[in-house]
Fold this sequence. Notes:
Elements: H1 3-16, H2 24-40, H3 45-60, H4 70-86, E1 101-106, H5 113-126, E2 131-136, H6 143-154, E3 157-159, H7 170-183, E4 188-193, H8 201-214, E5 218-224, H9 229-241, E6 246-250, H10 259-268, E7 272-276, E8 284-286, H11 289-297, H12 300-312, H13 315-326, H14 333-345, H15 349-354, H16 363-367, H17 371-382, H18 386-390, H19 397-407, H20 411-431
Parallel strand pairs: 1-4, 1-5, 2-3, 2-4, 5-6, 6-7
Antiparallel strand pairs: 7-8
Amino acid sequence: MFDTLSDRLSGIFTKLRGKGRLTDADIDATAREIRLALLEADVALPVVKGFIAAVKERARSSEVSQALNPAQQIIKIVNEELITVLGGEGRRLQFAKQPPTVIMLAGLQGSGKTTLAGKLARWLKGQGHQPLLVAADLQRPNAVGQLQVLGGRAGVEVYAPEPGNGTGDPVQVARASIEHAKRAARDIVIVDTAGRLGIDAEMMQQAADIRDAVQPDEVIFVIDAMVGQDAVRTAEAFRDGVGITGVVLSKLDGDARGGAALSVREVTGQPILFASTGEKLEDFDVFHPDRMASRILGMGDVLTLIEQAEQAFDSDQKEKMTAKLMGGEQFTLEDFLDQLIAVRRMGPIANVLAMMPGMGQMKDQLAELDDTHFDRVTAIIRSMTPGERTNPKIINGSRRARIANGSGVTVMDVNQLLNRFTDAQKMMKQMGGMMGLPGGGRRKA
Ligand code: GDP
């Protein structure tokens, strides 16, 4: 899903790579391209406008971080704006003070409501609740049967009209289910309601009647993410006709362009609570705006890296290191260990390296780089005494054997590390203060 949007955005960011500074013209051109990418993804126009205005303003303002290069800065801003559009912190399900909590599901036919009812019931049960599923969709042939099957799979009781009672009255069923839930000590009632293929007055009235009968704590609108912006108009109709308190995006496993996902929050003013990602009951998760944003950007690792680059390589550390090298001081194994730890904090080493200028294209090869190797080096240095770390020359044969033993490696591994370190030390000496620390990408000195 979101493939086109992801591709477009990463193409836009690639163009920024190698730029030392962003001019206003760069920002305008970038904003224009992001706007097109969003429109192409079928994001609602008012949402696009707000998004672009925010990106431009932030890119122009001087919230420029020393730790990031221009491409990273724009990625960071776009990521944060995506998170905002998707709901910021997000919101969790609201529970009634006095059980049962009543959750009513609404949406068009085929949006994935009944499936969601089963998923939600299974998930809530897993959290220790005692949910009751209510079959109040008496419109769609076999919706009741489908819910019963899902309830069976989830191990959750299904309240349904007696078979043979004709079509029955969904409002009646819904009302009676609340009484049943109280008697049976169910703390959550999930009411599946009927959908139509399009919005009509009768359907909206029925939904409103059910709402009045069950007094829900949450009215969740289920929206098929594949339908795009169109679905958002339906959401508006439900918001006005029934009043919704939250949204669930369904079919996010398909090749949704992103339009519905990115528009629905702003258009309805209601948070996205869950994401439905497949036909199976377990294909379901709490919706996390930040995770979704990084999925849209298709660069989750890079984002983590950006965040951690800002934290790990704070200017203090850089200054300390630069001063040390400029002052002709030795780069010791202790410093090396500090750097290793800082880099390691930033995530898998292959990703860290991939962020370094020019290494991005080598992602496949880098993926083979082994984090355990990295950790082994750390372990070896940790097995050394402080004296050995500052002055590796004293590490003779018996010390090597002791270190190898202590860190669970061979003497050959220790030798290899020491040789590499000696090389690095020489190089550091030559480079002196010119050295840029790894991870921050292009940095201003
Ligand atoms: P309802 O009419 O709103 O109750 O919709 P259903 O729950 O019956 O779902 C309609 C169809 O979409 C069914 O074939 C479901 O299996 C399928 N479906 C529901 N949710 C998802 C989802 O998240 N991913 C995929 N791929 N299919 C889904």
